[in-house]
Amino acid sequence: MEPDFLTDRTLTPADRRVFLAVVAASATFASLLVVAQFLIITTAFVDESGGSFEGPSFAFRVVNSLAPVVFYVMPIALYMHGRHSFGRGFLPVLVGSSLLGSSVWSLLHLAFGTYPIYDASVAITEISLTASLLVGIGLLGWALVGWRTRLRATERERLFREWQSEQSIALLQSEELRVRRDIADDLHGTLQNSLVLVQLQLADVAARLESDEELASLRGTVRDIELAVDHIREHEVRQIARSFYPEGLARGVGPAVTTLVRRLDTAIDVAVEISPGFAELDIANEEPLAAGERLLVFRIVEEGVVNAIRHGKARAVRIRLDAAFGPRSVTVEVHNNGVPARGGAVSGGLASLGDRVRLVGGELALRVEGEWTVLSARLPLTGETASALPLTPPGREITAGGFGELLRGASNRL
Fold first, then answer.
1. Whole-angstrom Cα distance, residue 169 to residue 177?
2. By the 8 A CB rule, do 101 and 68 touch?
3. What would the pLDDT profile of 345-385 be if each residue is shown by its tens digit?
4. Count of beta carbons in the 10 Å neighbourhood of residue 190
5. In the chain, fewer beta carbons within 10 Å around the N or the C end?
């Protein structure tokens, strides 16, 4: 079920002003054209016949032609005042005001002798033609306002779809983060504790085997199993847990990157540069980095470092984290002196990471600068966590939150 505002075509005060301006301007322009046409035809007739025509002055004719426009526009303006739609009464009001304006036009012409010959048949013809013209002008204004409301509804629907897409992405990221944290906690907690208990039991078995000469041959096997469990617990389980949710990320990207660097081979020269602006964002303040933003920034750094060492055989890595304000964004750069990728192409894990970066409106690129290969990314920051986004059950109208701001912006533009 679509929300009601997607099909709402209520007239705004701006719509009413546009309609009245179009109607008044078009009627005024048409009346002045009639005056100009009459003067041109009369002048040509007088010059050709050699006679003369005495009648009202040009200025009087202009005023005489503009006065009926007031009688035409005023009833429509009174009808439209404060209305949110044209309604069923619009067409009768339009026809009536058109007849009123054309009748006043004819009466003024008759009263002040605008035309040399003006009988009943001329008056009826003029009233009919003028009224038809005025009705057409009114329908033109109606069509123009209808186009405005349809355009506004289309823009509103487009913004709503974009808002829905952004909200869905944010909710998916929030759920992904929750699952990652849960799995990491389970690996760190439940599984690690279970392995510790197994290790203690194996140690106890090994101690008992030492006192039994018949089973002494099994002592080495049990010790090997104990060491294997210890290795799994200390290395493999911890590594899997870090892959789901990096260690230290809850405190910020900086601590997580520091932990990542400490795990690297000491033979690799690694330097980390964090600008004051990024440090300000990274530390909890009024507008810190959201959890999803932290994770994405860390993944870019991690992918750049791992690719540089594993595939590029780099011996030196430089990591730079910077932030910009207005609009808020983060820049990530990972420099390495390893073998550059063929053609500077982004492939494999970097390609999927690039898709994710572009999904949030960012950019990711790989370039070569002299002897350094540079992985760079720019991420716009929303400044709001996924959990803070409003949820709307099916069928409930959305009238607040970020989408409300989008609607107001669209209304102002249209």
1. 12
2. yes
3. 566 678 888 888 888 888 999 888 888 999 999 998 875 43
4. 10
5. N
346-380 b/e (C-beta count within 10 Å ≥ 16 → b): beeebeebbeebeebebebebeeeeebbbbbbbbe
pLDDT in tens, 18-31: 999 999 999 888 88
In the chain the domains, ranked by start, together with CATH numbers, are 8-166 (no CATH), 251-387 (3.30.565.10)
Residue 33 CB-density burial (10 A; 0-12 exposed, 13-18 middle, 19+ buried)? exposed
**Cα–Cα distance for residue pair 172/176, rounded to 1 Å:** 6
What tokens does 48 get?
Answer: 């050709």
Q: b or e along 322-334 (b: 16 or more beta carbons within 10 Å of the residue's beta carbon)?
A: bbeeeebbbbbbb
Token duo for residue 65: 């032609």
Bond from prior residue into 246 cis (ω within 30 degrees of 0) = no
What does the DSSP assignment read for 309-343? Answer: HHTS--SEEEEEEEEETTTTEEEEEEEE-SPPPGG
Six-digit token pair at 24? 């008044």
- Tokens matching residue 43: 């002048």
User: Residue 361 — left, alpha, or beta (φ > 0 → left; ψ -120 to 50 → alpha)?
Assistant: left
Cα separation, 170 vs 386, in Å, equals: 5
**In terms of Cα–Cα distance, which of 51, 72, 53 is closest to 114?**
53
Angle, CA 21 vertex, CA 90 and CA 139 arms, to 5°:
35
Listed in sequence order, the residues at least 6 apart from 183 whose beta carbon sits closer than 8 Å to its beta carbon are: 241, 244, 245
